Amino acid sequence: MAPHVTTVFTAARLGSRVVRSLTRPVRHRLAPWPRDPWATPPRPALLPDLGRRTRALTWLVVQGVVGLFVVLPLLFFFGLLLALGWDPAGWLLGLTLFLALLGLLRAVIRGARLLSPQPLPDPAARSGVSSLATVADDETRLLTLLRSGERALPAAGRAALHATVIATRDALRATAEDAALGRDAFDAQQAAREDLPELLRTYRAAPHTPETERLLLGQLTLIERRMKEITRERQERQLRALEAQHRYLESKYGERGETPPRR
Q: In terms of domains, do 168 and 242 share one?
């Protein structure tokens, strides 16, 4: 009977495993939908960044309060021992003060970094102005500039900056195949590498008044208009070239009303 009992228990265990595997919920990991990096975010990027900084500052304050409640009793205790004539308490008192000073210095540096705004990217660190820079580098620089500007500009400025950056990106792509650096390609590169970063840095350094907002929007509009003009001219040029090619092929391979000779 023992072999039969063992077989029954083995079959029961195997059946329970099969049932558990079949009734276990299947978890599908859906890949996140790729978001267009050039698209305007659904809400200002300042909110997530502000929440992160607020949490970090709160945690820093909690650490400071806990450290204060730890250091003060130690200082009182070691000071009392030193007053009672125990000499090693002086070394312990000095060590506690030194560690407290290091903690205070760390808290001050960390707090200053959290409270300071994120700097805008340098205009290609003056290295992107070289002829070795590619369109991909310029687009990466533009995208970084766009994300940094979204945290520093009001709603109207963010919309204008987004439109200007997109227009500049399109102008860079339209002039990417130019064999020589013409006026259009030069203007597109200057807008991406120098003009837009310099404009945002100047705006952030100036006092935020209605006049500065008006000047910022006006300059962004000027850059956007020029970039759209470059893209439009290139599109019209490509259209004319395509039409000319169509006329050539039509005259070469079109119907002439002649019957091809039979072989």
A: yes
Does this model's pTM top 0.70?
A: no
176-196 burial: b if 16+ Cβ within 10 Å, else e: eeeeeeeebbebbbebbbebb
Residue range(s) defining the domain that contains residue 59: 50-115
Provide the domain count of the chain.
2
**CA triplet 189, 192, 198: central angle to 5 degrees?**
120
| Nearest to 214, CA basis, from 226, 203, 205, 225 | 203
- In which residue are the tokens 């909110």 written? 47
Does residue 24 sit within a domain?
no
Residues 220-259 pLDDT 10s: 999 999 999 999 998 888 889 888 888 888 888 877 655 5
75 and 132 co-located in one domain: no
Same-domain status, 141 and 217: yes
Supply the Cα-derived Rg of the chain in whole angstroms.
Answer: 34
Residue 24 DSSP class: S
CA 240 remoteness from chain centre: 39
